[in-house]
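Intended use. Records like the one below are meant for learning the mapping from a protein sequence to its folded structure. Do not use them to infer anything beyond what is encoded.
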Amino acid sequence: MRLHILAIGKPRLAFAKAGVAEYLARFPAKNGIELESLRASTRDEESKALLARSEGMLRVVLDEHGKQVTSRELARKLSDWELHRTKSVAFLIGGADGHSDELRRTADWCWSLSPLTLQHELALVVLLEQLYRARCINAGTPYHRD
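Structure written out for the chain above:
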């Protein structure tokens, strides 16, 4: 299963650039992860771009109003998608103004990383770390500790 992260804007903050580089390097090339940055615009234009780019993929919208899960629950969700032969999953990170209602309605899953509103560069780093953690849980490697 291929994981795609579609995010509005490229990381500009030094900590975010370093975090993104660190976690992307931890994923194997085969069945790894792909990060694509889309141009910032208005909320509606950003949401349209995210919808268009994620066409045909299982859509996970990262949104503060989404469902919160534990790392183990995320690992189970990824495992379930793989068992159901899901080919591509798109994780959608909006810009400063979030997502449109239309984008939220088209989501296969709306996921909240935290009850806090996270700056989108920070959300990207947290997402990458959690996807890496979930892959480690499913592979049985010792990265995650309960």
